Amino acid sequence: MKYTKYFFILLLGSLCFWVSQIKIRLPLLTTIIYKNSKFTIFEMKNPLLAGIFIAASAGIFEEGFRFLFRKFLLKNSRNIVEAAIFGLGHSLMEILYLFYVTGFHTALFSISIWGILERILATFLHIELSILLWLGFLKNKKYRILILAMLLHTFVDSIIPVAGYFRRSIWEVEFLFFAIVLWIGILLIKYHKREENL
């Protein structure tokens, strides 16, 4: 029974990414932004701001829907393990989508060590952000934590446009990504232990 529940939560995590990104955010970006000549001009003149704007949209939609799924579909979930499984499901759907967009054969044979590292770090980040939101519900700080999760997600996704703008190398980008994921993980562990000891 426990594993059936875990599998259901994994599917909900995957559904969360599918709804928030594939069905809502990406179509909105395509129809409202990328087909808008004014935004195209803005993007050409201000590539950094445009990149940060797109990163912010990912943070708002992904964390917003993660929050809604927890609030309405998993409102009785009080287990951090369940939060981690939800985040894993979210990341797995993202990986499947990337394979679908690039073509499975192309993605399989063109993937680099940096691409593998980036996906591993992204998976840990999704798990961490899910745990963070769960803790927000458990500690009755859900709206403040939601804003924090959106800001963290936006900050991480902004690394790529910022790095591109300042011509940083890929290993610098991945090292910064790793440092942020590690930092969030350490903070979550410390916070959880502190709350348990109160």
From TrEMBL:
InterPro entries linked: YhfC
Tree of life domain: Bacteria
Pfam families for this protein: YhfC (PF10086)
GO MF assignments: metallopeptidase activity
Keywords: Hydrolase, Membrane, Metalloprotease, Protease, Transmembrane, Transmembrane helix
Transmembrane regions listed in the UniProt entry: 46-68, 120-138, 145-164, 170-189
Name used for this protein in its record: YhfC family intramembrane metalloprotease
Protein's organism: Fusobacterium necrophorum
